[in-house]
Amino acid sequence: MQRPFPATLLYGGDYNPEQWPTEVWHEDMRLMKLAHVNMVSINIFSWALLEPEPDHYHFEQLDGIMDLLAQNGIMADLATGTASPPTWMSHLYPSLLPVTREGVRMSHGSRQHYCPNSPDYRRKTAALLERLATRYAQHPALKMWHLNNEYGCHTGSCYCENCAQAFRVWLEARYHDLDTLNFAWGTNFWSQRYYAWEDILPPRISPAQNNPGQTLDYWRFMSDSLLACYRVEEDLLRTITPDVPLTTNLMVAFKPVDAFAWASHMDIVSFDMYPPITARPSETAFSHDLMRSIKGGQPHLVMEQSPSQVNWMPQNPHKRPGRMRLHSLQAVAHGADGVLFFQWRQSKAGAEMFHSAVVSHDSSEQTRIFQQAARVGAELRRLAPHVTGSRVQAQVALLMDWQNWWAVEYQPGPSSRLHYWQLLLSYYHALHDLNVAVDIVAPDSDLSGYRLVIAPLLHMLRPGVASNLEQFVARGGSLLTTFFSGIVDQNDHVILGGYPAELRALLGIHVEEFDPWTKEMTNSVQIAEGNMQGTYPATLWGELVHLEGAKALGVFSCDYYANHPALTVNRFGQGKAYYLATQGNDELIAALTNHLCTEAQVAPVLNSPTGVEITKRVHSDGSELYFLLNHTDQPQSVTLPAGCFTALLDDKAIEGQVEIAAVDAVILRKNP
Ligand code: GAL
Ligand code: ZN
């Protein structure tokens, strides 16, 4: 059963009162009200205080915090506190500490120093959580569980003996017998054959590159191991507090954790958002679209963003005025129903004392940061009744697959310059510039609701993926895929008989050879006619493509494959399948994306000047909300569709044209 999202826009942050005397807690309550905070995440790193010595639990301080929140009407996103075991635990159970690929056992002294396959860690987390959950099950402040914190952060993989043993169990469950494993890993290569399960190791450091099948399975196994830790907590909580929703804060662009596999175990998807100051607005938009999509479009939550600077980059500039507010409204614009900060009050000591917080070191409510946070809090409160219940609706899907990511970036591969995330972003940027709504979905998901599917670098074809794409196109959809796609199966074995294997009929092409370029090598794509006509620089990769029914829309302009196809289109059933055999520059990707959207009759939400992002959220009764976000430093104006609108942040009636100040947003409700 799905436990519901609290029916409001959530606002608040990580709250660590254990770092402060109780007088400060009372001041915090006063300030939280000023900032319109309605939820805080507590107890994230409190294990050492809850269990100061083995099996002796002390919840008195946490009782006080929970009571204070309840008295002040603030909801608790109560963390299970399992991300940082107490120091005594690593003395008592040394094998709980994680081991690097080089074989170095890590020490405690920072955080997240646990091996996900340590039986001691799992047992101790369950023992703590059982007490914690039982104690607070009926507490009025408890509104959400926050399991652990950023699973895999700092230790996305461990290579210890616990993990080696658990890996063997995982492999036996996957392959049943050694012959099947030997086949899957191709172990007749380099004399790697296994004759006993005990001989199998994690891909620890070795003289040359580790077996690709073993490496890929280790990625799968590590994501599953972290998920297994989550599931220990999940199972307990679903029994003890069946009505309280569960979340954990995922990290974006985080290779070790396959978020699609995790989503079904979370009631609410939440994630932490720390864009560098140079990030384009589309990068944060992409994170939101991914997090919204992994749970089928249900509202997600930004569990952490920084009110201003962070402390962990080489240099940490603060967020310029208005930017945090715009990021917060952008989150809502892309389907989030809440935005929280790391953290509420800036620490006085510890590794994060120079990380910004809503309440900074001068403890005042007069600071720029506090004032801005209070403004955002007031605005979210105002928006909440209009926004909650509405959803983003997309007709375009961008395909994303963690297993593909793990396989395609195996090194040494054909090119060290293949960065799957960046290639996905290159297509997302173009869609974002068009103000087209996008879902980010797995290649084996139901595509029937989409008109256009873009699948950059779909290197691995897991079972059913090719037929899923064929059905999508046959029924009238438009598909674009790109170079180095359709190369391997789920075992990371090359699919023989010519690339792109199972996609060959769909794309109507045959790729004879692929050619990963050095940084110095370039080429270009020449498109002789039509709305994409032009010559576009290309980088990264070229291919020797033969037509087998497809038509060449563009050709390479030089090198020995000059005049050979670079961009192709093939009619398949009612639809069309495109293939781009290189990485085009931004202009080519923009032209292509534009062409595909037009052809697939995918309309932008609205047209806007460069740097103005527009999204729409729709209620089940069809009523619409438009979010217009001006990311530029100049005022901008946008032409609205026919009808009367109300600007929800200031209640003004608007028709025809709307002005948006620099670094500002306008949120419009279309009046019936
Ligand atoms: C997150 C983490 C928080 C805090 C924050 C600082 O990764 O969950 O506890 O460390 O980063 O930016
Ligand atoms: Zn381990």
Task: Give an overview of the whole structure.
The structure is a single chain. By secondary structure, the chain is α/β, with parallel strands linked by helices. The protein folds into 4 domains: 157 residues, Glycosidases (TIM Barrel, Alpha-Beta Barrel), CATH 3.20.20.80; 173 residues, TIM Barrel (Alpha-Beta Barrel); 204 residues, 3-Layer(aba) Sandwich (Rossmann fold), CATH 3.40.50.880; 59 residues, Immunoglobulin-like (Sandwich). The protein is built from 17 helices and 28 strands. The strands form 5 sheets. A 10-stranded mixed sheet has the order 11-10-12-13-20-19-18-15-16-21, sandwiched between helices. A hairpin with a 5-residue loop joins strand 22 and strand 23. The protein is globular and about 75 Å long. The chain starts with 9 loop residues before the first strand and ends with a strand. Bound molecules: beta-D-galactopyranose and zinc ion. The site of beta-D-galactopyranose has 11 residues, from loops.
In short:
With 672 residues, the chain is α/β, with parallel strands linked by helices. The protein is globular and about 75 Å long.
Estimate percent helicity.
25-40%
* Name given to the CATH homologous superfamily of the largest domain: Class I glutamine amidotransferase (GATase) domain
Tally the helices: 17
Count of discrete domains: 4
Output the CATH class name of the largest domain.
Alpha Beta
The bound ligands are: beta-D-galactopyranose, zinc ion
SS-based class: alpha/beta
By DSSP, the count of extended strands is 28
Average pLDDT, rounded to a whole number, is: 97
What characterizes the major β-sheet?
A: 10 strands, mixed
| End-to-end gap | 35 Å
